[in-house]
Amino acid sequence: MLFVLLLGLVLSGCRLRAGAGSSGGSGATTLPTPIPTTIDLPTVRPTSTPKPVPTITPTPLPDLTVIGLPPESAGMAAYDFSATICDAKWSTKTGSVPCNGTDVTTTSGYVAPLDALSQGLSAGIGGLVMYPPHGGADDTISGRYPDFTVKKGDRFRTVLTCRARNFCDVEFGLEYYDPNGHTGLRRWSYLFADPPIVVDYPLDGIAGLTVQFNLVVQRHGEGLQAYAAWLQPHIHRP
Question: Are the beta carbons of 217 and 228 closer than 8 angstroms?
Fold first, then answer.
């Protein structure tokens, strides 16, 4: 009997110790320690500023019917050769020429803006006068303008004549340069006794190309007074 009582006490103590161990002594459940994590955020690259797209600023032109050009369709002057005379590189066979020469008696070539009033025209009409060298084999003067992209419908328009109160016996030329080289478009021969030549030349044949237009004047003979005038040379874009 005594043995049975002692065995019961021992078993009761074991159960009490097992319960205390499972509850941690307070009845609270121990939670696992959280493991810190690192979140890699994507790197945001700075955005680049887009380059401005070059645009053509329309050039307002006066009424060009006063110089003989037919009325233009609705549109704008996409390029004005007389207003940008100093953007071109002017030269003869022997060297460069300034864009606003003042010595009209020079033998080495001369180019300058044309004064509308001295030409008998109303103010506002632009133009340029080109004087090729006289004597010898250097008989040509030309001006190569910056890049210009031709679009379908563009037309080269001007009136060709001599400077007022001067003689000229010359050949005018419209040419262009592109990556493939140098190409001529049109030539017009002019003698001082002739009526002015009205030019309204379509450029559809080179539409889509980026070119450098080249205005040329070549004298005939000695040409001591080969003052060739381009009245309001421009490209009309409908």
Answer: yes
